[in-house]
């Protein structure tokens, strides 16, 4: 196996108590497997799997199946996993993709499947080009997990000029123009670490509790929050949720309003997509659409949606 002929498989794990939609999804997966010359099978637990896919095939197959990270997934799906022949996989839910090495070692988070695939290809390539008759686990042990992760992520995240292209590159819209951070403004993934600390000094100890020892060093002058979280193998969106919860309480302002556009949810709080799905609110074609308009079009109560979103964001530990 080389990096050039690396193949992937897609595996669906269903929610045990929900049967609706399973047969339709399995039938669609058979069609998709045939379309991309993959192999469709059911594993011993009746989980559908498509194997023998290229990186590009996986991206297209996920689109065909409606399983992009920013879309609403069928309610019967618990997870969608992208597997490689190596012990390296991306476990996806409707808010993004957690990448693991070995059995349970968390490696990185990616919002979009193309970004997850890109990181997996980089990790596999680095291993295959440098291993000395070693398994992936043996190779990582020999060079150190931190070295392996930092090398792969260092080649994957945006460079020191603060570009957010790697974060937004596959999302279907351009990188937003981010205004300077002022007291009372909510934190975004693109905000510079030192910029955050200067405006909100209380965030320094909070970030250090997350293991971001780079706070206060020269690295943080060139590193945005997204890069820092990726470099430490953390979920930037959970961090942002907690930080903005603190800001909302301090300045007595709501985290979300009826006028909040969907693009804000996608770029700051994708973990809320499951809440939208639970309220049967579909994704709009224009991501600038406000959640108030989305609720009106779906016949949903916007106050209930906002309350559930607020509850989800506040479900983590308090600062």
UniProtKB/TrEMBL annotation:
Could you identify this protein by its name? DUF1858 domain-containing protein
The record ties this protein, via SUPFAM superfamilies, to: SP0561-like (SSF140683)
Lineage here is:
Bacteria, Bacillati, Bacillota, Negativicutes, Veillonellales
UniProt domain DUF1858: residue ranges:
190-239
Q: Which NCBIfam families match?
A: prismane_assoc (TIGR03980)
Q: Which InterPro entries match?
A: CHP03980_redox-disulphide, DUF1858, ScdA-like_N_sf
Taxonomically, which superkingdom?
A: Bacteria
């Amino acid at each position: 196996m080389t990096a050039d002929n690396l193949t992937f498989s897609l595996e669906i794990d269903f929610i045990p108590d929900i049967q609706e939609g399973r047969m339709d999804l399995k039938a669609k997966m058979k069609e998709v497997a045939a379309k991309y010359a993959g192999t469709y099978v059911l594993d011993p637990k009746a989980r559908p799997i498509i194997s023998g896919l290229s990186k590009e095939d996986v991206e297209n197959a996920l689109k065909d199946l409606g399983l992009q990270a920013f879309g609403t997934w069928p309610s019967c799906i618990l997870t969608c996993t992208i597997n490689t022949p190596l012990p390296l996989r991306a476990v996806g839910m409707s808010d993004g993709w957690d990448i693991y090495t070995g059995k349970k070692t968390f490696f990185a988070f990616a919002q979009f499947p193309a970004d997850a695939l890109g990181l997996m290809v980089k990790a596999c390539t680095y291993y295959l080009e440098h291993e000395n008759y070693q398994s992936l686990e043996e190779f990582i042990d020999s060079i150190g997990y931190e070295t392996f992760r930092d090398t792969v992520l260092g080649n994957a995240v945006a460079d020191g000029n603060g570009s957010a292209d790697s974060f937004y590159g596959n999302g279907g819209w351009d990188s937003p123009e981010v205004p300077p951070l002022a007291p009372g403004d909510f934190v975004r993934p693109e905000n510079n670490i030192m910029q955050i600390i200067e405006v909100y000094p209380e965030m320094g100890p909070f970030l250090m509790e997350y293991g971001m020892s780079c706070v206060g060093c020269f690295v943080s002058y060139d590193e945005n929050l997204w890069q820092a979280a990726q470099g430490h193998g953390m979920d930037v969106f959970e961090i942002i949720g907690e930080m903005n919860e603190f800001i909302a309480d301090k300045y007595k302002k709501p985290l979300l309003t009826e006028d909040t556009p969907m693009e804000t949810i996608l770029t700051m709080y994708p973990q809320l997509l499951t809440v939208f799905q639970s309220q049967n609110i579909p994704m709009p074609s224009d991501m600038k659409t406000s959640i108030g308009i989305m609720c009106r079009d779906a016949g949903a109560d916007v106050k209930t949606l906002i309350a559930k979103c607020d509850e989800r964001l506040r479900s983590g530990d308090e600062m």
